[in-house]
Structure prediction request, 334 residues.
Amino acid sequence: MRLLLKGWYPMPALEFIRSRLDPEWEIRLCDREQVPASLEESEVFARELGEAHSFVSMSWSAAMPGAPELLLLQLPGAGVNQIDFDAVPPQCSVCNVFEHEIGIAEYLVLAILEWEIGLRHMDASLREGVWSDGFALGRPLHGELHGKSVGFIGYGRISRETARRLRPFGVRLRACTRSPEKGDEFVDVIADMDGLDAMLADCDYVVVACPLTDETRGLVDADALARLQPSAVIVNVARGEIIDEQALYEACHRRQIGGAVIDTWYRYPTAGDPDTERCLPSRYPFQSLDNVIMTPHASGWSGGLLERRWRVMIDNFNRLSRGEPLLNVVHAPG
Prediction:
């Protein structure tokens, strides 16, 4: 069976994959990132895809070459918004992979603690000899996470791992989700999406951690932001488009809310294109606001992520060759 990998893979990564694949598998490489696109190169890719039984990619469109042998389109991440499911070959399963919830949960705990305590501001001030905080000069008290309330929009792997870590801090936890029956011992209150307005009005922090779908695009709009408390902070680790871009900027700029921690954005650079590798992530100047923490879609990009993901994907390839049920199926054949 043939596994097609598109792009450049370092030798240690290939050795890791080969050492765990069943012997039935042959790895085929088609490097479209180092070679400029051309008719010849496109023909190479079309031929390789036409013979592949499994292909690793985050995207699939109607423009893809024919893949009559393809049985598994394995996404190396969780998002499916770049997959045209109508164009997927009828005999092919589509599976995704998670394993980013550990890194994102740690990021969220850090973000909320940083907002409460303000470590980076204390450090910057003291480096200038300014004792802007602390008891030495009787400066204002910093915040505590204990007793605060955190609400999750979406209660999947990311929210659950975050709730597990926040619980020992003495935080009150709420969630709104399409599947409220999947509540657990970590959240105090869980409701369906009809309970979103009540949750927004109740929480000190609101974490956006739901998938981007037609239903969630623009879910957090100006009206939703207006329901937040004036001191509330919204944290987005899902997709930028779930929060209305202009409404979020204006809410922070006007200090209608306490602020935002934003990891997922509205503009992204293009790898290998020097004209776009350096770009601001929004058409609005979030970078000018002191009540916004900006990070470059890095919350889940942690040290153990890739190995954990490859272990799951390799397990899926071996399941395919053995005729066993696949993991994380988001689209079944037919």
Residues 101-294 form a domain with the Rossmann fold fold (CATH 3.40.50.720).
